[in-house]
User: What shape does this take?
Amino acid sequence: MRKFLQPKYIIFFILLVAAFFLLRKGFEPHEDVLIAGDQSEAICPLHKIHLKLDTVVIAVRKDDPDSSYIVFQKKNFPMAQDTFYLLQWFQDDEHKNLSRAQIWYCPACREAKRKIAEGS
Assistant: This one.
C-alpha cells in the first residue's frame, strides 16, 4: 500500500482525473444537431456533382409554399437546401433540444438559388 502512496503515483492519479474532466466534453454528442444519413456518393440530378454536408437551422413551415415555386425550384435548383423544414416540431423528449440539422446539398444549386434571389 505504501508503494502506491508515493508522490509520483498521487500526481499521476490527479492528472488522470483532471484529464477526464477536461476531455469528456469533446466526446459528448452534439444534442442540438439532427444527424443526416450518409449520402456522400449521391449526385445532384441537375448539375451532376457530388453533394456536400452542411448544418442548417430547423424551421417549422406554417403554410405550404406556392406550387409554382416548387416546380421552379425543382427545375432550377433542386438540391439547394439551406433550411431543414418541419411541418410540426418533434413531440418526443429525444429531439426537444434540436435547433440545427445536417443536410446534403449541391453547391451549384445553392449558387443558382442565391443568384435568382438577388435578381441577377
Notes: Residues 29-118 form one domain.
